[in-house]
Amino acid sequence: MAESYKIFQKQSKNTKEKKRPGKERNMEQKTSIIPAGRLQKIMEYMKEHGSVQIKELADYLDVSDATVRRDLDDLDTQGLLVRTHGGAVRKNDNTSSFEWQHNEKLTIMLHEKRQIAKLAASFVHEGDTILLDSGTTTYYLASELSDIPNLTVITYDLFIGGNLVLHPTSTMIVTGGIRRQGYNNVLLGSMVEDYVRNIRVDKAFLGADAIDVDFGISNTNVMEASIKRLLVQAGKQVILIGDHSKMGRMALIKVCDLTDIDGVIIDKAIDENSLHRMKEKVKNVYLA
């Protein structure tokens, strides 16, 4: 009887030892292969579309919104994309020269840009003369100005000049210049520079491709950077408007130092360290 029990015990032990490796292999498949396949689909989708919202990605992958959030957070941690409010945008490693097309920029950090624009508009008052830099954040700012009377708005951005609806008592001025090939909203060249060099405005709103506390504000396009430098000189008050995804980055050419501007309006997602260091360089920092 005892001998039979030993044989049974030995067989049971062998059975458990045989089953355990298979179970471990199944667990490995669940924790690596399946998520990796899903993450690969996300990256392929991002490559094609440039940006994504959680709901559309959940429908595309046939998973829950919570699952998509976790996946996007994971990819953001790995530095493969940039998380935004309600989704994510594609990240390009060539940060010094890569530039989004205008229609792509309009959808990137959309919620953050609109919040920044609303706060920036609160600094504009009746009778002000303002100079708007080219860009999507300044475009959303321009769309917030329609109820303010007696403004004079100056820009070298055709998209702002062609689509902005102002108060009937206000004036829109678009500088002359040469339309930038492939970026139909931007005017460049000596005509723009000469105009901006010879004006003085109450407030100038500056955009940026990249913001680094030490390096300063920088841009991917050399010709546009020269206009931005003149914009900084033209404003009695110069306010930088940009979302947190621009922080800690350096583009091809420097525009100015953070100490050259009077204020910054940025969204609340900026990390505490960057915010603290920025406040050491800029007197007025506002969170949208």
Automatic annotation (TrEMBL):
Residues 35-90 form the HTH deoR-type domain. InterPro entries: Carb_Metab_HTH_regulators (IPR050313), DeoR-like_C (IPR014036), DeoR_HTH (IPR001034), NagB/RpiA_transferase-like (IPR037171), Tscrpt_reg_HTH_DeoR_CS (IPR018356), WH-like_DNA-bd_sf (IPR036388), WH_DNA-bd_sf (IPR036390). The keyword Transmembrane does not apply. SUPFAM superfamilies: NagB/RpiA/CoA transferase-like (SSF100950), Winged helix' DNA-binding domain (SSF46785). Residues 1-29 are annotated as: Disordered. Keywords: DNA-binding, Transcription, Transcription regulation. This is DeoR/GlpR transcriptional regulator. It comes from Hungatella hominis.
